[in-house]
Amino acid sequence: MSLLxxxxxxxxxxRGRLERVAVRDASLxxxxxxxxxxxxxxxxxxxTLLRIAAGxxxxxxxxxxxxxxxLAHCRxxxxxxxxxxxxxxxxxxxxxxxxxHVAAGLLAQRIxxxxxxxxxxxxxxRVGAENCGQLRCHELDGAELVRxxxxxxxxxxxxxxxxxxxTNGVDQLERDPLLLLLRSIANEGTAVLMSxxxxxxxxxxxxxxxxxxxxxxxxxxxxxxVSLWRAESGARRR
Amino acid sequence: xxxVGEQVLEERGTDPVGNAVLRSQVACAVLGLVIEKPSHGYxxxxxxxxxxxAFLSVxxxxxxxxxxxxxxxxxxxxxxxxxxxxxxxxxxxxASYRATAQGARAYRGWxxxxxRNDPHRVEMLGRMTLAGVxxxxxxxxxxxxxxxxxxxxxxxxxxxxxxxxSDRGGVSGVVERLLIEERRQMIDAQLRxxxxxxxxxxxxxxNSPGLAVTE
Lengths: 238, 215
Known about the structure:
The structure holds two protein chains of two kinds. Chain A is of the alpha/beta class. Chain A has helices at residues 46-54, 71-78, 98-107, 113-126, 142-154, 172-187, 222-237; strands at residues 4-15, 18-30, 35-40, 61-66, 69-70, 83-86, 160-164, 191-196, 207-212, 215-216.
């Protein structure tokens, strides 16, 4: 049983008389601890697919199963708990300090404020934003916003982290450390599903898909690469 | 004053013998190794195997042949093998090679040309031409394969962990990161082209459904 299983999902948006198919018959599985990337241009449907994967939106056709359960039925119990949906544009205008924002997910689970803040600070340290706790959201730069958003999503120790375009709007030199952080989160057992428009995010990932006009096109794994390379090398030698 | 790019072409253009030698990838690789560190032929062979073995599978005789060609083109030269006592060690230790200034310039020129090149796109277009693409579906299939190659290459590029924690400091570390970034940006451009090509082909199919018929 896969951690997340998306099967033949289609999502349409209606704008007046026009209908746009954002995601068309898309299927993918994610296993625990995997780092999976969906790469696509703007308006390719990548953000919609991630919202569906996280249970933030429902598909019109197809199904999404998380740990074997239909997400349509268990959304409220898993979103923000077993699934961390990371909104990188979350709240630069939001009031309150960063640490309060990060701890909010635990407060909703009736954890004491003191414990929640302590856990929040641990998470900020984990994501490399330990100096941001006492700042306000509007004071964060692009990379700090993403790190804080990741900490907020991780605070409930989810099994799956879904993050939309983590490197978008991030300074070039901050990009690789962010990708390294996501890789390390996956290595520790939390599956990561991210979208990107930047091929830099593909380096070293477990699997990569491309999405074009709502259609998934490529599924490539390092193991597949190695086996193909060996097969081709063998053919050349023969 | 000539621009840098023009200067490189001029440098290479004035040396037809050197240009001819550098058509061989093995010779270029050997020249790079000699520039990196003057060495004996045997040591160059060992370093070649470690550095390029996965890409260029050649025997030691090819390495020595490349050294001979580079010598003939005056891109490398033999180092004096006389010891401080004045007794030659050449016969036992073998000749040691170092790059000439001309060789170093030619190598930089060759590198610059290779970096400008986009072998994947050329190869893809070549394959499409050879195979004869007679339908939109066949063209879309080619596009999908091309995309797959691009994604694979992006996955195989050095992951960020190695960049961040690299032990390679100084100029060589920076240059290595820049070269990886150059490939990444090229892959981004290729993927944008793929997306554009797909849109064009879909539009062609929608406007002329007959084009979708397979060969």
